[in-house]
Write a structure and sequence with these properties.
Blueprint lengths: L2 H12 L2 H23 L2 H4 L11 H21 L6 H14 L5 E9 L2 E10 L2 E2 L6 H4 L1 E5 L1
Antiparallel strand pairs: 1-2, 1-4, 2-3
Helix pairs in contact: 2-4, 2-5, 4-5
Length: 144
């Protein structure tokens, strides 16, 4: 068994039943957003935000970080190339389903190679799963 396959098997064994369900949900939502982005405008894909839950803000961040990891794993397991926009839309919809307010941010930066764009999710002002330099490197163009 190759090291990579061994690592994947070890990781799979560490997932709880709930994590597996979330991973499967993420996989299907990724597929849905991947296809939807080809036929539906981004404007129509933006869904309304929920009211922020004031009860447990730390729980919301913990849930968001965990869901982000599982969306990342699901995107790596996909047969289709999953870029940051379907991943961000997937994470946001999964968090909304759990009653957590999340905003999709789209930013761009100019480099010597051209213009690069990136999409990410923020919960309570924190960019989930991103580096601290994100706001320094990307100018926010839009938020959903």
């Amino acid at each position: 068994m190759s090291k990579s396959l061994r690592d994947k098997a070890r990781t799979a064994l560490t997932l709880s039943f709930s994590d597996w369900l979330t991973l499967i949900e993420a996989w299907w939502r990724l597929l849905g957003f991947y296809l939807a982005l080809r036929w539906i405008s981004y404007e129509r894909l933006k869904s309304p935000n929920l009211k922020p839950s004031d009860e447990e803000p730390e729980r919301d961040l913990t849930v968001a970080r965990g869901a982000h990891l599982l969306v990342g794993r699901a995107s790596h397991l996909h047969l289709l190339p999953m870029t940051c926009l379907p991943r961000a839309l997937t994470l946001r919809s999964m968090l909304a389903r759990r009653g957590i307010r999340a905003d999709v941010r789209i930013g761009a930066r100019r480099t010597t190679e051209g213009i690069h764009a990136h999409a990410w999710v923020e919960v309570q002002g924190e960019a989930i799963g991103e580096t601290d330099e994100l706001n320094e490197n990307f100018q926010v163009l839009d938020s959903a």
